[in-house]
Every structure is written in C-alpha cells, then in structure tokens.
Write a structure and sequence with these properties.
This is Lipopolysaccharide export system protein LptC. It comes from Pseudorhodobacter antarcticus. Keywords: Membrane, Transmembrane, Transmembrane helix. The protein is α+β, with helices and mostly antiparallel strands. The protein has a domain of 139 residues: lipopolysaccharide transport protein A fold, CATH 2.60.450.10. Helix content is 22%, strand content 43%. The chain contains two helices and 15 strands. It has a 15-stranded antiparallel sheet that branches. The protein is globular, with a radius of gyration of 32 Å.
C-alpha cells in the first residue's frame, strides 16, 4: 500500500467519526440557542380568523379574466367575493372593477359598489351605483346594470346621466353590444327620453 493510499484510508476513517460528532454539536447548539416557543401565542388570532372564515366564507381581492364569444377580453376584480348561501348558485362581490377590451381596440371600464354573479345565466348584476367610462370619451353613471360574462352585452334599465364629447346627456336606458352587421364594431345606444345638451367645441 502506498503512502497516498494509507493517507486516504486514514482520512476516510477519521471523517466517519468526526462528521457525525460535528453534526451533533451543531444540533445541540441550535437547541441551546433557540428561544422557547409558547404554543398559545398565536392561537387566539388564528382561531378568530378561522372561525370567521368558516362562518362567512369569502375570497379577498379575487381576479377573474376570460374572453367572450365575440373576442373581447373581460377582466373582473373585487375587494371581496362571497358565495351565496343555500341552494343558490352564484356569488356576491363588493367594490367591483370590470374592464372590457374589444377586438376593435375600444375599451370600457365599469366600477360598481356591489355585484351579484349568476353562474347558470352567465351574467352579473351591479348595483349601488355604477360608473362606466369608455375609450370614446363617455362617462356614465347609473344605479344598476346587467352584463353578460360570455358575450359583450351591457344593459342598464335605470336612468343614466353622463358626459360625452358632444356635451352632457341623460336617458332612461343604455346598452353596449356588438354590431349585428358583422363589422366587428360595438354600439353604445341610449333609449327612453334621451336628452343631450350640445356643447360646441371651443375655437382654437
């Protein structure tokens, strides 16, 4: 056996003893230095949160995104969402923000105080005050509206008021739908006693 082999065998034998002892020493040091943990410290807070979630299950800051049948990108965010109780299928939400990006480049943003999702009907109803802003320069307020989740369809049957590039206006109803002529464009239609106070553009 060469001197190199002897050294190698001795080193291996020494490491077999030294490494476990070193590991044991490190673990002992960790146990000695660790602070004693009181298992009761966090329990009151955890129990309150868990009990509250069990009693009233909810999602915090949920985010839903999808594409409608006509190709528009639909994004919905909320402060909180809660499933309906009982046999009803759906969920309620607060502080809703709905963004609709159409394939033609136009966009619509809706902000609502409350909302109710009807999953079987693929719709949601916004109530408690709704503000609608379009990329074409319209800002509309209404008390409630209904929108589809699977296609571009926004309907408000409550009185509306707002501003447009032509001036302030009011109406009894409003719809936003895709033009049925196949052009791919979208229509913003006002109905029921439409009034517009035309404001001519300021001369430059």
């Amino acid at each position: 056996m060469t001197q190199h082999d002897t050294f190698h065998s001795t080193a291996v034998a020494w490491l077999k003893v030294a490494l476990p002892l070193l590991a044991l020493a490190i673990l002992s040091t960790l146990f000695l230095m660790s602070r004693t943990v009181d298992p009761n410290d966090a329990i009151p807070f955890a129990e309150v949160d868990v009990e509250d979630r069990i009693r009233e299950p909810r999602l915090t800051q949920p985010n839903w995104a999808g594409v409608t049948d006509d190709g528009a990108a639909l994004t919905i965010t909320a402060d909180q969402a809660r499933p309906q109780q009982g046999d009803a299928t759906g969920a309620s939400a607060t502080a809703l923000i709905v963004t609709l990006e159409a394939p033609d480049g136009s966009s619509t943003k809706m902000v609502a105080t409350n909302g109710m999702f009807d999953i079987p009907q693929n719709t949601f109803n916004a109530t408690g005050g709704v503000t609608i802003t379009t990329s074409s320069g319209y800002e509309i307020t209404t008390e409630a509206m209904t929108a589809a989740l699977d296609r571009t369809s926004v309907i408000s049957n409550t009185p509306i008021a707002g501003t447009s590039p032509s001036g302030p206006f009011s109406a009894g109803q409003m719809t936003i739908t895709q033009n049925p002529d196949g052009s791919g464009q979208y229509l913003l239609v006002f109905k029921e006693g439409v009034r517009l106070l035309y404001t001519p553009p300021s001369p430059k």
